[in-house]
What does this fold into?
Amino acid sequence: MSKIFETADAFPDKKSIEIEYWDLDSFDSEFAEYLLIKPNNSLYNSEKAILNLLPADIVDRGVQLHVRVSKLPSETVKIGIRDLRAEHLGKFIAIDGLVRKTTEVRPMLREAVFQCQRCYGILKVPQEGVAFKEPLDCSKEQGGCGRAATSTAFKLLTEKSQFIDTQKLEIQESPEGLRAGAQPERLSMYVEDDIVGQIAPGDRIVINGILRSQQRYNRVRGKSTLFDIFLEGNSIELREKEFEDVKIDDKEMKEIKKLAKNPNVYDTIIESIAPSIYGMIVEKEALALQLFSGVRKHMPDNTKIRGDIHILLVGDPGTAKSQLLEYISHLSPRGIYASGKSTTAAGLTAAAVRDEFGEGRWTLEAGALVLADGGIACIDEIDKMSSQDRSALHEAMEQQEIHVAKAGITASLKSRCALLAAANPKYGRFDEYQPISGQIDMAPALLSRFDVIFPVKDKPDEATDKSMAEHILLSHLGGEIKEHRSESEDSQFSEADEKTALKAVIPILEPEFLRKYIAHARRKIYPVMTPDAIQDITDFYVQLRRQEGSGDTPAVAITPRQLEALVRISEASARMRLSEKITSEDSERAIKITQYYLKRVASDSGIIDIDMIATGVGHSQRGRIIQLMDIIRDLSTGDKGGITDEEEVIENAEAKGLDRDQVVGDIEKLLRDGRIFKPSEKKLKLV
Ligand code: ADP
Ligand code: MG
It folds into this structure.
């Protein structure tokens, strides 16, 4: 009673009586049961009963309270979107999922008040749905003149009519609850009045409400006997916790602790990642670390530092990049797999669109990076993403937020996820001697936001070719034996044959168990650096910064960005063995991985040079370009009017010891960048 009076007093700031199902059940279990079967009746009558309890003066103020029931018994009425059937129509159910789209909040006409333009009588027409209902005649029952709509006109009095705020949402099944490889199914839902505008795309929610149906309509054939379903939302529960759905029992907890103590814990985990893919040990190690993630930090000045480790795989076609991404997206407790060439309007980030879904309203739709909030977004062929995503991705990767401002919609959506991306080189094959940004269609500024970049080369090498072929053939053989045994009645192969052949590709740890191990580490383990680890990382950083470059402007080997990456990788490494302390073991692992990749993507004539990633021009090329500009300037001064001969420039450069092919390439780059131009064939001029 006190809750009812409090809410009524606060009306219209408060409009709902919120009640948890079990409280209702202990108050009146028969009614609680009835509510699930006949929610329409129960809710309508509850709301009416509440009005009867209130004193007349409050009711006269127009108070109308909603009854919102949450925390429904999940064993019986929590239904998966794909399991919704006709029997659930009209029932009170709970749906669990990920919000994909939300429309703008817009008022909807609930009760229209019209004025007859002949007799000036007033008549009320209740509205439902989006189709506007006009009176058929000036109703005599409501005191009107009784003229048909054809012989009078009706004017809508908006000030006297009643409106209610409405919003439409689309929810999809959570990735963590999906069978591996299944596409998530979706459901539309409507919410009204005080619960609109509370959730954003990317939120994980439980929504409780009544399942309703709506007749399909076909422009040609008219009304159909097929119906669509949607949920009329009664209450929303927001779920914030990470990996809440991953349940771990006591027995599993024991197993987890046992594995953490095993000295081989790293190898065991790394070998359990995509065992069907041969080699790529360091890459798999980095992917394992990415699954465990660094620590997200909330600083006292209100800034946040991301803990997620972003990884990019660039490389030759057919090197199992896509395969790896897909594997990780299933292994991660919250993984999303998408292609850069996404087909939805939201793409990788988010978009405001005006489509059928919004029924005239603008809709905010979440893309892959928002849907993967709290997990890993595996984006294949990221180099093919749209230009709109390209500009939003910077912010998504570093600030882990995506802002949308378009039409009536301004929103900032969370994208606190790790990005695992794969890209194909522009010219077919990856060339380790060229700056990486020239080879893939991505801006250097974007590339430098990855913590680790791995080039995946497909280099013929007799020894590895042989073992890889053996590995692939053996796994195919094992697969063949397995299929053969299950399909043919008297197979000559034994279970042992199957086991032997498949030995190399059976993961040591069951993916289901590894998932739980990861979820536990990310939920419960927050490691802290020891002085040793700090010392190691500082030494490595300073030593690389000090590295001698040739010429006047020394190469910058590494920037604070990589320093942060080292910290994140060390944190993940400690988490992997459930350690609260980050020791030298962890910092060394981080240094090993950083060195491994820097040597492959940022090495310019043997020296590590981060500008190969960060600006797309290596230190030695920058040196050559400065020299080349000097030569052009020298040759074009005086009576030449600033114009010089291309061949003369090249010969001069060669005389100074530069390589002819490189110089030709550099001239092309200068022309592309607009720093010189060709006034006529074979002539050059400074801009
Ligand atoms: P990418 O995306 O790099 O172009 P895919 O992931 O499509 O390559 O891989 C092509 C095929 O080659 C896959 O069927 C994959 O299993 C196989 N393959 C490539 N490299 C390996 C490897 N190292 N071990 C096992 N299979 C491999
Ligand atoms: Mg591919």
In short: DSSP finds 24 helices and 28 strands in the chain. The chain has a mean pLDDT of 84.
